[in-house]
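Convert to structure. Protein one:
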Amino acid sequence: MVQLEGTVLSGSNNVFEIECDDKDDDGNSIIRNCSFKSKRLKLDTRYYNPLAPGDRVQIEIEDSQDEKGQILSLVPRSNAFIRWNVKGRAPQLLAANLDYIILVTTPAEPEFRPRFIDRELVQAEYQNLTPIILVNKYDLPEAQEPDFQNRLSIWEELGYKVLRISAKSGEGLTELAELITGKLSALVGQSGVGKSSLVNVLDNTCVLKTGSLSRKYGKGSHTTTKGTLMHIHLNESIVGGVQNAYASIIDTPGVRRFVLNDIAADDLALYFREFEPLIGKCKFGTNCKHDSEPGCKILEAVEAGVITEERFESWQRIREEIQTGNWDD
């Protein structure tokens, strides 16, 4: 028996594609289909799915020629991006061991939802991940509307990187490619925002299924049904003629409703960047609810314009969603 490590590319029904650390005769990593050796593996059973693309695992094979193997254990994660799966009533791992979590949105088609992005930013802050906000379909006329531009400016002023991209026209693709070269990133967002289209245009040898929006509801169809890690060969025309530039991308299924995981309503302010430095400095200290209390530093910051009304309202509404369990679609 031979033991070695590998990276989870994708999986379902407890069978996972593992990119193993050993190589074939051409120097390429060997991909094996692996299942769990024992149901008593030391995995966190709280999760809707036990492993995510990007996870590192230890496996066992009978000999180096085997095309299948058995998963022995999980190598400790450096990080993971997680959401609460409402249907499964459990936390769902979307991706692991990331350099960047790329939050994909659009000015329209589907409708722009800034609080959806704020929820994702909160989860990323909680998980100590580096988020990138990627605005796809920036060629649409709605991208130039003042309210939309104001929202992007708010995030940028908070220190978040915002990329303005059009998979259709090519705008911004060079900046995106430079950012992700040599890194492991995950694309997360609503159905229909164009995650698969972005992968297709970054690597024109990669063809992922893309879908059209539902005419009735203006929402995308789920064309990616499970998360998959891909190593893409970046199009030389995008990276200035550089040859053999690669990036690792996890394309995740579209999410219509992003529900926070493991974050209490009273702790939410800790994960709003502009709120966090003021926590505990109110007249009533950490007991302040930041609603109407005298001496509340957060309310004073809103009044002074240090915290924008848009973000304060977003915080209020997300806090209410946590408290009531009623999350917007």
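Protein two, convert as well:
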Amino acid sequence: MSSGQDLARREAIDEYEVVGRRPEPELQRLVELAAAVCDVPTAVINIIDDRHQHQVAAVGLAASVCAREDSMCARVLADPHPVAVPDARLDERFATNPFVTGDIANVRFYASSPLVTPTGTPIGTLCVFDDVPRGLSAPATRALDVLAEQVVDVLELRRVSRELARSNEQLTHFAGQVSHDLRNPLAALVGFLEIAADSPGMAEMPATAEALARAESSAARMTAMIGDLLAFARIGGGVGTGPVDLQREAKAVLEDLSSEVDDRGADVEVGTLPTVTGDATLLRALLQNLLANAVKFSAAGGQRPVVRVAAEAVAGGWRLTVEDNGPGVPAADRERVFELLARGDEQQSVEGLGIGLSTCRRIVQSHGGRIGITDSELGGACVWVSLPRPEDG
């Protein structure tokens, strides 16, 4: 097996954090079920890295660790598919194996189904065996495959749960750090705007008065958004539900971003957007992040920013897209840029800490949706968001 495959396997195993720990109750129940379904005394979940086989759950024996070269399951992992051997003494792959010869055990019947991650990396097996020769029925073979899939599902669920917990903790810590820095300058800004709006002679300057009113409105929206986002981070993602007119929210966002749009000479076009169900403040924050990023990174590419916002009905919901003519995001970075504090091209001199897309993903996921990046027909990046209709979950 190639070193590249071993590296991918080791990285996947490390993400699952299952080796060297007490057996997960869910995994233990699955091996017990495998033994019962296959009518054998012993079943094991084996995780196989580049050096060892780790029995992370077992019934019929005490879970242990052995060298990879002694593992029966390692012999079949290079070509992962279900295996059933009535008598291992008669199979050239296993005849001299210490689990068969008596040096470690006296396995005769052996069957296994591979554990393959969603990315296609085999990391081990769910195997059953007996010390007498025997066969395995077709229904039992299929059941073993299904149980192996369930093992991977349990590992994935545990991995995602840990990542979400770490993300929540990280975001909550970050929220506490920035709340003071965000709120105090904004409060000072609101105060200065109020003083300016009450200044003598403002009635004779209608254009200035209108600009101040717009600024006060934007500051009020920012205050509400900051409060709601910080609360969102602290409570672990609770969101409000109600009708949200994305067309109206996009208009408000463009008002807030008008100075930046004008300063950069950006051409921003918003198509017809739907009314969806969700949290208005969070979805406005989503639009603001996506539009601000599109304008900012397009301008960083050294050309006049062009941004297009559109939406279309798809099966089960809506697909929203924000496209730009900037430098785009390389395919290899399209997952990393959604991580907290991640940046795009590190060589680009672009303001901002890189928390926007992490927040966007969190908001979208809290609404039961998905977010990703593809290439745009404008030449840059296309950030897409799928949001489900309420009746579709």
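The chain has two domains: 3-161, 239-393. Residues 113 and 146 are 9 Å apart (CA to CA).
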